[in-house]
Amino acid sequence: MSLRDIPLRTLAGVPTSLGELAPGPFLIVNVASRCGLTPQYTGLVNLHRQYGPQGFAVVGVPCNQFHGQEPGSAEEIQEFCSVTYGVDFPILEKIDVNGPDRHPLYRALTETSDAGGQAGDIEWNFEKFLVDRDGVIAARFRPGITPENPAITTAIEKIL
Questions:
Q1: What is the CATH number of the domain that holds 107?
Q2: Alpha helices of 59-103 — where are they, by DSSP H?
Q3: Which residue of the set 9, 16, 34, 35 is catalytic?
Q4: Which residue range is the domain that position 19 belongs to?
């Protein structure tokens, strides 16, 4: 099964897939509302708007596995994202990205190594995976690499 075909649900609970949500290249990010890295939403929104006309999308995946930093309901998450950061990219339902209940999407994503050659568990909120049009993971960026980092923008431009 392709990464684009893995069954998912939107934040509103509607069945979907990455192929339906983001037919072009996309950056998938595990997000949280109460994290020190939450201001990265601003950069993610900017990436989505800057490259969106070329078929690119950002896809947010709420996760509450890191010190309970995404405790809200789907409605609370949606309101926080839209009111606080103007998020206009797709957000999926809250899932587990690590551990025995890791979602199949993250089982596939975590097999990918970062620039330092390390694969495995998600380290923290706002870890990013760049996926090309064919559903191939092009790059993995750890949480400390902000959306504005040239490594991300260069990688996006390369696959557009």
A1: 3.40.30.10
A2: 74-85
A3: 35
A4: 3-159
Task: Note if 35 is an active site residue.
Answer: yes
Sort 100 into a burial class: Cβ within 10 Å, 0-12 / 13-18 / 19+.
exposed
Q: What pTM does this model have?
A: 0.96
The total of structural domains in the chain comes to 1
Q: Residue 9 burial by CB count (10 A; 0-12/13-18/19+): exposed, middle or buried?
A: middle
CA-based torsion, 158, 131, 39, 88: positive or negative = positive
pLDDT, tens digit only, all 160 positions of the chain: 789 999 999 999 999 999 999 989 999 999 999 999 999 999 999 999 999 999 999 999 999 999 999 999 999 999 999 999 999 999 999 999 999 999 999 999 999 999 999 999 999 999 999 999 999 999 999 999 999 999 999 999 999 9
